[in-house]
Amino acid sequence: MDVITPRRIRITLKTIRAITFISLLLLIFFSTVVLSIVLYAKWQGPPSLTVPQSTIIYASDGSKIGELHNGQKRYWVNLDDISEHVLQATIAIEDRSFYDHHGFDYKRIAGAALADLRAMAKVQGASTITQQYARNLFLQHEKTWQRKAMEAFYTIRLEQNYSKDEILEGYLNTIFYGHGVYGIEAAANYYFGKNASQLTLAEASMLAGIPKGPNLYSPYINQEKAKERQTIILKMMANEGYITEKQLDGALREKLVYTTKEEKVQKGMAPYFQDAVMSSLAMDLQMDEDILKTKGLKIYTTLDPDMQKIAEEIVASSIEKKSDIQAGFVAMDPKTGYVKALIGGRDYEKSPFNRATQAKRQPGSTIKPLLYYTAINNGFTPSTEMMSEPTTFSYDDGKATYKPSNYNDYYANDFITMLQAIALSDNIYAVKTHMFLGMDKLVKSGEQFGLDTKIKKVPSAALGTSPIRLVDIVNAYGMLGNGGKKIEPAFVTKVEAANGDVIYKAEKNKEQILNEQAAFVTTHMMTGMFDPKLNGYTSVTGQSIANTLTRDYAGKSGSTSTDSWMIGFSPQIVAGVWTGYDKGKSIDLVQERGYSKTIWARFMEKALEDESVKAFRPPDGLVGVYINPASGKLATKECPEKRLTYYVEGTEPTEYCTEHSTEMPKEKESKQKEDSLFDKLFKWWD
């Protein structure tokens, strides 16, 4: 048996005194901290209770192109003008101790924490009405400790400087009720076509349930869930003594009559562009779009109103009105990546789906410039020859084969140069190049060009079978056009908060990503699609629109059974057009296959008609020589066609063409009988 000695008693007493002393120090410390925070909150004064304001979107010239939630869905009403049923239903479901606590319901917090621990997940909330109102006053809604701390401080400031009725009034005027509706007055009008003061018990309890999850409890979205939540609220109101059992039964039986649900279509100029603005801004600022739309922001965009109008008119007039074919269009400044015009579909009211920024489709041959840039960067030149003939390619260690074909099964059955291959869109040449380089090269180039989706490591990738977004491929062409500097599609130049503070500004410094010389060589080869000098076993792919163009352009068309593309640029602007059917229906009519080229050509000419004609200027490190396009050799005076072509210095041809010399036999040289170096290597490798 232990003997309690005086010494042990003294040790125990010392321990108790030490613990008591430390506890008192901690209590004093925390009391001081809490008191300091409360006093500081009081000293800071009342926080601004600004009514959510319309966010305004401006074009690049300063003109207003859109105003989001411009008052029709948001009103501020006094507490006296709100039905008593709304006040009671809101307090019953959101914060039963609202009039008793000082901003934080500690008992509820402890209960929620215990419930979360038991479930090992976030299953129960404990935010008071004051905390929720504080959250509504913030522009930043990211889930960080800093934001949580500021929200708690705002809660204290609200409680220190405003009455409970003032806090409740502010909360009910700023809470989100779904469908772009903010505040109880707007909600009463939107759902029931009446003022907040006229809401019945059944209507008030229905609306009080929506803020918990507007996409779940809106009666327009899920009537069953909305009714379940209304029942919960009514029963809680009865438990709290707000209503009698008779009122409860009557409200549950009341058949609610809603106004006709009409989602307001966004009005104003370029609705697809405005959607893209909000989507990109939400990502850049890490904010919810609904928050951005209600903070009185001034959003300055890259849109050129004149170009947008030109694009819209041309798309509308170029496509048969009876046709169900869809269209996407993007025009950008290749130097900055600023999107100057954008169309996501033929009718925003019928379909707000943005085919320029959201749809991912197979780009077809429009991927080839990225492939040929890669080839130029790996030793190929515009004069590199390969045989254009039906070819079966084996891959995956011989386990698989791929047999592409040219359009309409036309082949040169002879050697063609890369310069001709891109102008005629020869598929055999493209796949040979892809396989010779190694399929991983194009995959890496896709990443280098900033494509949002990864190119698959398969032979058919050379022919554009990996889906991409229109805005991304247009941006990639812009990088070729600007000499290889990195750009990204940009919709916004600057954003100002309601108080005038600049909270976002677009970056301007552009990093050199591509090889400048290889980018220009590729660009200059891309002008060949409009040049009849490069006609061979078939015509250049831009022949149908070449006569309508009055200046130099670099471009590439592409097609699949379901998609038609045309992308190209001048030194001032890069634009791309996609046409096709949403549900993968094949494009069978010849007229419909020509829409993309027609729209692109008409837009470029109209958009640049008042601009000076600018040429593509070669950078240092290049050599320009005249060649015979058919052979890729230096042209002589006997050659029927001569074309200025650029090469990376040191790779230009040194041999003169002898095909048309009177001193040589008319039959072709031995190159007809022998494979080119690349074809020899390719056949050996295969």
UniProtKB/TrEMBL annotation:
Annotated ranges, domain Glycosyl transferase family: 62-237
Superkingdom field: Bacteria
Gene Ontology CC terms: outer membrane-bounded periplasmic space; plasma membrane
Swiss-Prot/TrEMBL GO biological process terms: cell wall organization; peptidoglycan biosynthetic process; proteolysis; regulation of cell shape
InterPro entries: Beta-lactam/transpept-like, Glyco_trans_51, Glycosyltr_51/Transpeptidase, Lysozyme-like_dom_sf, PBP_transglycosylase, PCN-bd_Tpept
Keywords: Carboxypeptidase, Cell membrane, Cell shape, Cell wall biogenesis/degradation, Glycosyltransferase, Hydrolase, Membrane, Multifunctional enzyme, Peptidoglycan synthesis, Protease, Transferase
Annotated SUPFAM superfamilies: beta-lactamase/transpeptidase-like (SSF56601), Lysozyme-like (SSF53955)
GO terms, molecular function: penicillin binding; peptidoglycan glycosyltransferase activity; serine-type D-Ala-D-Ala carboxypeptidase activity
Subcellular localization: Cell membrane
Residue ranges of domain Penicillin-binding protein transpeptidase in the record: 328-572
Catalytic activity: Preferential cleavage: (Ac)2-L-Lys-D-Ala-|-D-Ala. Also transpeptidation of peptidyl-alanyl moieties that are N-acyl substituents of D-alanine; [GlcNAc-(1->4)-Mur2Ac(oyl-L-Ala-gamma-D-Glu-L-Lys-D-Ala-D-Ala)](n)-di-trans,octa-cis-undecaprenyl diphosphate + beta-D-GlcNAc-(1->4)-Mur2Ac(oyl-L-Ala-gamma-D-Glu-L-Lys-D-Ala-D-Ala)-di-trans,octa-cis-undecaprenyl diphosphate = [GlcNAc-(1->4)-Mur2Ac(oyl-L-Ala-gamma-D-Glu-L-Lys-D-Ala-D-Ala)](n+1)-di-trans,octa-cis-undecaprenyl diphosphate + di-trans,octa-cis-undecaprenyl diphosphate + H(+)
Matches recorded under PANTHER family: BINDING PROTEIN TRANSPEPTIDASE, PUTATIVE-RELATED (PTHR32282), PENICILLIN-BINDING PROTEIN 1B (PTHR32282:SF11)
Stated family: In the C-terminal section; belongs to the transpeptidase family. In the N-terminal section; belongs to the glycosyltransferase 51 family.
UniProt-recorded name of the protein: PBP1A family penicillin-binding protein
Source species of the chain: Metabacillus sediminilitoris
Lineage of origin: Bacteria, Bacillati, Bacillota, Bacilli, Bacillales
